[in-house]
Amino acid sequence: MTSIKSQFQSQYDAEVGALLQKRFRWWAGTWLVLWLPWFAGAWMQSLICIAVIAVGGWWGSQRLLSIDERIRTAVWMLIATAGLTICLVGFGVIDGNLEGCVIWSGLSLLLACIFLPMTFAQAVKPAAIMLLMWMITAVWTDKLDIHWVSPIIVILYSFVYFPALAVAGIRTSQFGKHFEARMLRRHQEDFVREVFDAQKFHNALFPDECLTGTIQFRYIDLPRAGIGGDFLHADFDSKGRLNLVVLDVSGDGISAALTVHRMQGELERVMAESGDDALAPDQALALLDRYVELTLAHHGIYGFALFFRIDLEGHIEYSGAGHTPAFIRRANGSTETLESTTWPLGASTDHDPLQCLKESKLNPGDVLLIHTDGACEERNEKDQRLGYAGTFEMVRDAANPHQDLHWPKHFIKLLEDFRGNGESMYDVRREDTLVVAVTLNESSSNHETTTTLQAETATQS
User: CATH 3.60.40.10 occupies which residues in the chain?
Assistant: First the structure.
């Protein structure tokens, strides 16, 4: 998973850079003031170290330097002053002892880690080099004999640098945590606003429910993350026929919504270009399948669709691509299953030999019930999956709601009952779930009036 710091790397680098520039000169000045007494009586060492610290402090506080350049300057300042001190003491140019030089270099590194936002890895480099310089000088000047005690002595003196390394590690970790907390607070409001705007755009693309005329439909969309990969396309053609397409894509959330919007745009283009000679459902899905194959399948993204065309007499032509089965709940209580006719969109690289058109009949009092796979993925308290067969049995055995167009709400209530834990699907959404109910109204007998109502609904959509 990508960390917050990596997502806002530019802001993180900007804050670290500003902190380095602000503190670099203060660090150099404090270092110079604190350690001048150490060089009392050693004028040669004092002059050279003062020059190194002064020039390095001036250079490291320049505005145009990058983070790496400032850290590199600090490291070389530490190495140069420590190396000079160790060599002058080791070769007897000035009075002193090498053990004191090691302690001095460790304290210098600690001061740098206190002032500068150095990481643990950045602090290890000067510590290792300064310890190595001390070891080489001690051996070269015969102040450290090579025998079995030497490794123990080296390990003991390496502890001088541990406080500096601890400060570097802890401060880097704390700075990163504070930065992530600030970024989350600062961008949470923006993110929520962006998601809210995306939800409004996503919902605006859905059609209006049609509750008048011969063919009526109602639906409920419950995306798991407030926005998801389930989509409904519905329009009435010039003959008053309802073209209804349910789309679903692999995945959930914003990424799935972005994908299904691409498919929805292509579907609308295909339908619009066909004009009055509307494409049959299987032909439209074949073109959509080709689009998904060329644009999405190589990313491992596939689509699922059910396309229904219903005329004013209730004749149904349909075709499906890997989608969960739809049901026709008959007025006599029987249930008919309308299964997909081929595999998912984009799954085949060749012409689909299974793509075909099937027919059925919707009578007054019947309900065409379509749902996405979120319903099949529901689990009960025993962690048992509802599945396709369970969904069919649930619809088959359910009592009819008060009105046929109440089936979407009734279907959701049945899923809540299957959960068995009292959770509301409107509050706790485990998967994207879309439920659509289509009915044929037997009270509309005047063909011209019905066609007018369908055209008005299409204009509103």
Answer: 207-460
Residue 244: closest CA among 368, 338, 341: 368
> 91: burial class by Cβ within 10 Å (0-12, 13-18, 19+)?
exposed
Distance CA 256, CA 230 (A): 8
Q: How many CA atoms lie within 13 A of 342 on its CB side?
A: 26
Could you give the CA distance from residue 170 to residue 182 in angstroms, rounded to a whole number? 18
CA angle 347, 350, 353 (to 5 degrees): 90
Q: Are strands 230-236 and 215-222 parallel, antiparallel or unpaired?
A: unpaired
Q: What is the CATH number of domain 207-460?
A: 3.60.40.10
**Distances from the Cα of 437 to the Cαs of 140, 299, 414, 445, in angstroms?**
90, 33, 15, 21
What's the helix, strand, coil split of the chain in %, to 5? 55, 15, 30
Other Cβ atoms within 10 Å of 220 Cβ, number: 18
- CA geometry: angle 23, 29, 30, nearest 5 deg: 85
Q: Look up the pTM and report it.
A: 0.63
What are the φ/ψ torsions at residue 210 (nearest 5 degrees)?
-110, 110
Q: According to the 3-state scheme, what is the secondary structure of 132-181?
A: HHHHHHHHHCCCCCCCCCHHHHHHHHHHHHHHHHHHHHHHHHHHHHHHHH
Lookup result for tokens 């962006």: 194
Region for residue 365 given its phi and psi (left: phi exceeds 0; alpha: psi -120 to 50; beta: otherwise): left
Q: Which two tokens stand for residue 326?
A: 């739809």
| pLDDT, one tens digit for every residue, the chain (461 residues) | 455 556 677 777 777 878 888 888 888 888 777 766 655 555 555 666 667 777 777 777 776 778 788 888 888 888 888 777 777 776 666 666 767 777 888 888 888 888 888 888 888 988 888 888 887 877 777 655 444 446 666 677 778 888 888 988 888 888 877 777 777 777 777 878 888 888 888 888 899 999 999 999 999 999 887 888 899 999 998 889 999 999 999 878 888 899 999 999 999 999 888 876 678 999 999 999 999 999 998 888 999 999 999 999 999 999 999 999 999 999 888 999 999 988 899 887 665 555 689 999 999 999 999 999 989 999 988 889 999 999 999 999 988 876 778 899 999 999 999 998 878 888 888 888 999 999 998 754 444 434 444 444 444 44
Give CA separation, 259 vs 86, 203, 248, 265, in Å: 65, 15, 9, 10
